[in-house]
Design goal:
There is one protein chain. By secondary structure, this protein is α/β, with parallel strands linked by helices. The chain folds into two domains: about 80 residues, Medium-chain alcohol dehydrogenases, catalytic domain (Quinone Oxidoreductase, Chain A, domain 1, Alpha-Beta Complex); about 130 residues, NAD(P)-binding Rossmann-like Domain (Rossmann fold, 3-Layer(aba) Sandwich), CATH 3.40.50. The strands form two sheets. The chain has a five-stranded antiparallel beta sheet with strand order 4-1-2-3-5. It has a five-stranded parallel beta sheet with strand order 8-7-6-9-10, sandwiched between helices. α2 crosses α3 and α5 runs parallel beside α6. The two termini are about 35 Å apart.
Length: about 230
């Protein structure tokens, strides 16, 4: 296989999840469109300028447009080698979600890298057993936040607890009442909402004065009042 024609580029054999938001038309894009924003795979060929850093066969993850393809040409600056304990499937399904969680935690919510253990902020994560929700729970728990997770079944609540949520609430119950009970009537400091319209009004009841509601996405329905969540 010939090397990529451009300096600092790699040619990758790709494993990429298909972005459903583009398929459904929720996120608009001009057609024809090759979808894909994140992927992982192995280096099939590398330009001589980067071949020493990424020899053929190296397993890598990356963020790039048009990644849903059998082969992808990607700038080496957007590629990271994968450690032995991470599969290409894990990397392809977690890069964008992990970076999304970190971006919203640090920049949108303004939470520091660590907070006092046991006395950290109260944080509510909707859909805490989902893709991005799982990242939120793990990162926030590691930082020392007091994490409450919502999920739609006892099994999913157990998943959230296993990932570090100190409290879970079945989303089919009265979430507002449960959260106020858990927080002693104070409400939470931060809410990360990846659900959408179905939970937004409740968020405004659960967030404490001067708290923050971060709209992360719209897994169930688009947000009211024209609000939309954005990934990093």
């Amino acid at each position: 296989m010939c090397s990529p024609p451009h300096p600092n580029f790699l040619l990758l054999i790709t494993n990429s999840p298909l972005p459903s938001y583009f398929r459904t038309g929720l996120y608009k894009a001009p057609l024809p469109l090759i979808t894909g924003k994140e992927a992982a795979g192995t280096v099939a060929a590398a330009h001589p300028s980067v071949a020493s850093r990424f020899p053929e066969g190296t397993r890598v993850g990356y963020l790039a447009d048009h990644a849903y393809a059998a082969l992808t040409a990607v700038p080496a600056a957007r590629v990271i080698p994968l450690p032995d304990g991470v599969t290409t499937k894990q990397a392809a399904s977690s890069l964008l979600q992990g970076l999304t969680a970190l971006t919203f935690i640090r920049e949108a919510a303004g939470l520091a890298n660590s907070v006092p253990q046991g006395g950290g902020p109260w944080v509510l994560v909707h859909a805490a057993a989902g893709g991005v929700g799982t990242w939120f729970v793990q990162v926030l728990s590691a930082m020392g936040a007091r994490v409450i997770g919502t999920a739609s079944s006892p099994e999913k609540c157990e998943v959230a607890r296993g990932n570090g949520a100190g409290w879970t609430v079945n989303s089919r119950e009265d979430v507002v009442a449960k959260v106020k009970e858990i927080t002693g009537g104070e409400g939470v400091d931060v809410i990360f909402d990846g659900v959408g319209k179905a939970t937004f009004d409740g968020d405004l009841e659960m967030v404490r004065r001067k708290g923050t509601v971060v709209m992360v996405g719209n897994a169930v329905s688009t947000h009211p009042y024209g609000l939309r969540g954005h990934a990093c």
